[in-house]
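Milestone M4 deliverable, item 7.
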Amino acid sequence: MLVAPAVLIIVGLRLWPLVLGVNFSFTGDGDRDGVMVGLDNYVTLFADPLFRTALRNVGLLVLLLPVAVAIPGLLATFIYLRVPGHRVYRGVYFFPAVLSPVIVGAIFTLLLAFDGPLNGVLGGLGIGPVDWLGDPGVAFFVVVAVHVWATFGMALVVFLAGFATLDQSLLDAARVDGASFAQTVRHVIVPSLRRTIQFVVVTTMIGMLTSMFGLLYVMTSGGPEGSTYLPEYYIWIQQGRLNQPALASAASTALFGIMLVVGLAQIAILRRAAGEED
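Output delivered:
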């Protein structure tokens, strides 16, 4: 009886719309609006070069995920170990998390412009200017780096909460035994925070897949040459610009499946690694 209201809210506002969206992905657009078309939308989806580029970029995000998790993890470790100025650092690191992605994107668009301040500094050092947002081989990694900078503050807070459960006696024992910083992190901190790490890994990956639209829209608009497309941006293009809601629903369903598979795989790998350590 006590959990029934929460269950009803989840079913009514989350699960039922999800079912409707999946069902809508099997209908047609335009003249075939509302007509069941089977898997036609999915065939069209995976035949689209832009969507295949978006899937490739998802693979790159998976490869870049350890870096996105390691940065807040290491910074949280430094703060927990009370490096000089740790109180100031905690506020500074979290500050970007309160900024709107549109604001962050606009700031970095100015900084990374071909004639912007960063290339001006590089020119002063004798290094040629880099087309940070116009080079198809560079732009996606730049946007991901900006996203990591703008969002790692939340992961930092989660890591600090995990450190609150860490047994201080383990760190004291490692210090007495003469363990180096790297050994302490590997053999004491990481095993003790494996549940926290699992949570941060999954939430960071979901954030990369579903929270980069603002940056993509402001910084690159999916370009150059579609190289910065992600599924969420592709969904917006199909729904907002091309008026193909059924195809957008198919892309949304595919994105949900990708997040589910990637999330479960990450949890399984982390649990297996923790089991081997035990």
